[in-house]
Write a structure and sequence with these properties.
By secondary structure, the protein is an alpha/beta fold. The protein has one domain: SGNH hydrolase (Rossmann fold). It has seven helices and five strands. The chain is globular, with a radius of gyration of 17 Å.
Length: 212
């Protein structure tokens, strides 16, 4: 009886954001909402033609405590946009990542002030996808590895409730461990228990902080 009560009261983790959310579909304890091609940079762009930020905010309003929201965004920035912006704006890669993370945190705050407890699914390590979208200034494999590592290192320091999966799934040279990869740029379902364990710890910490 006690076990049943615990299960009923356990917070559900609502997952929304980019394509790295798909592995949580139909997984116990998770509620999959939508897979969209959102970037971390554009979530606060209210003029964005795709309106991903508005769609995520609308879904977030339906997530009531004790349930929480796990937001996935940032990998597309690393794969397609960070180096391009660095070259075109003539600024260091770290500056582009800094602004991207600041905008991500601004979006998190917008959701938090409306009552949603927000966590961020960290980016995976770099993958092996080539320039299939014909993007200008597409990074080399080595540049990708450096960008992803820098993004993750900075996010760990800056972003509250950042779920770092990079550190647990990366090879020594900064790429996804092949046995954990689902395709050229996504981790597979084997990473779900890793995320679940980190989220359980974070949710417990956050509950304790709220009660102090």
């Amino acid at each position: 009886m006690m076990k049943s009560v615990t299960l009923l009261e356990a917070p559900r983790i609502h997952v929304i954001g980019d394509s790295h959310t798909v592995i949580f579909k139909d997984k116990p304890g998770f509620v999959f909402h939508e897979n969209m091609k959102c970037t971390a940079y554009n979530l606060v762009n209210h003029e964005s033609k795709n309106g991903f930020g508005k769609r995520i905010a609308k879904a977030a309003r339906r997530v009531k405590p004790p349930d929480v929201l796990l937001l996935s965004a940032g990998e597309i920035d690393c794969r397609l946009h960070v180096l391009k912006a660095s070259i075109e704006k003539n600024v260091p890669i770290e500056a582009v990542i800094l602004v991207t993370l600041q905008r991500l945190m601004k979006f998190m705050l917008q959701l938090e002030v409306k009552g949603t407890h927000v966590f961020v699914l960290g980016i995976p390590p770099a993958g092996w996808q080539g320039n299939v979208y014909n993007i200008a200034h597409y990074p080399t494999r080595e540049q990708h590895a450096a960008i992803y590592k820098t993004f993750n290192d900075m996010a760990r320091q800056m972003v509250p409730w950042y779920v770092d999966i990079y550190s647990k799934t990366s090879t020594a040279d900064g790429f996804m461990q092949a046995e954990l990869a689902q395709d050229e740029c996504h981790l597979g379902p084997a990473v779900v228990p890793v995320v679940q364990a980190i989220m359980n710890e974070y949710i417990t910490m956050r509950k304790w902080i709220n009660e102090v």
